[in-house]
Amino acid sequence: MAAVISLGGSFLFDKKKDTSLLFKELKGIKEKSLVITGGGPIAREYIGFAKDFNLNEKDLHTVGIKCTHLNAWIMSKAFETDYTDKDPRKIKINGKITLTGGYLPGWTTDTCAAYAAVSTHSNVIFNMSKETGVYDKDPRKFENVRLLKEITFEKLYTLTKGKRVPGMNFIFDPLAARICKKHGIKVVVTSDIEDIKRYLENREINGTIIG
User: What are the pLDDT digits (tens) for 23-53?
Assistant: First the structure.
C-alpha cells in the first residue's frame, strides 16, 4: 500500500515552508508515497493567458496539466525524489517518494489521485489544502462556518455542485469522489501535515475524513 497525497497547487505556492516539512514527513513514514501536485495560481494564470489567444477548452485543460507537471518536476528536483508522467491507472512507485501531475483533459489531479490510489492499493488519499478541512459553508464567503470532522461522499456531493471548467477549485472533485466511494477509499482533507502520520497511526486528526 502507498500513501497517496493530492497536493493542492495553492498549498504548494502559499505554504512553501509546510511543503518542505511535508516531504520530510513523508520520508519518515514507513509507507511509500505518491504525491500528485496541482497547478495552483500559475495554472490559472496560464489558462487565462491561453484564453486570450482563443484556445479551446480541451487545450485549456492541457495547459493546466502541463503546469501540474512543471510543479511536480520542480518538487522532485528540490527534494530528490522520483518523477513520472505515466497514466495514474497504471502507475508504479519505484522509490520512496514519487511525484506526478495531471494526465487527461477533464481529469483533475484529485481524479488522478483516486485512480492512483486504486492502482497502488491504497485505502486513503490525503488531500492537502489551504483549509483545515471541509466546512458546512464556504469559509471564503461566510464567517459562521462549522468544520465537519467526518462526512459521507453523499454529503460532499451537495457541497460540490456545478460544471467542471479549467482552473476551477473544488473541495474534492466529484468524479474522484465517485471513484473513491466505489473502491472504499477514504479521503482526508487537511492543512496539517501531521495528520498524515496521525491517520496512519489510527489517531485523531485535525482535518476532515470523507468516506
Answer: 999 998 888 999 999 999 999 999 999 999 9
Count CB-CB contacts under 10 A for residue 17: 7
Task: Give the C-alpha separation, 136 to 105, whole Å.
Answer: 30
In the chain, how long is the greatest CA-to-CA distance?
A: 50
Tell me, what DSSP letter sits at residue 99? E
Domain boundaries along the sequence of the chain: 2-210
| Contact indicator for 177, 170 with CB cutoff of 8 Å | no
Taking alpha carbons only, the member of 185, 183, 184, 162 closest to residue 173 is 162
What cell does 111 get?
481524479
Report the distance separating Cα 67 and Cα 58, nearest Å.
15
Q: What is the pLDDT of residues 127-150, one digit of tens each?
A: 998 888 888 777 777 778 888 899
Question: What's the CATH code, domain 2-210?
Answer: 3.40.1160.10
Give CA separation, 64 vs 23, 30, 59, 79, in Å.
Answer: 23, 32, 9, 23
pTM, two decimals, is 0.88
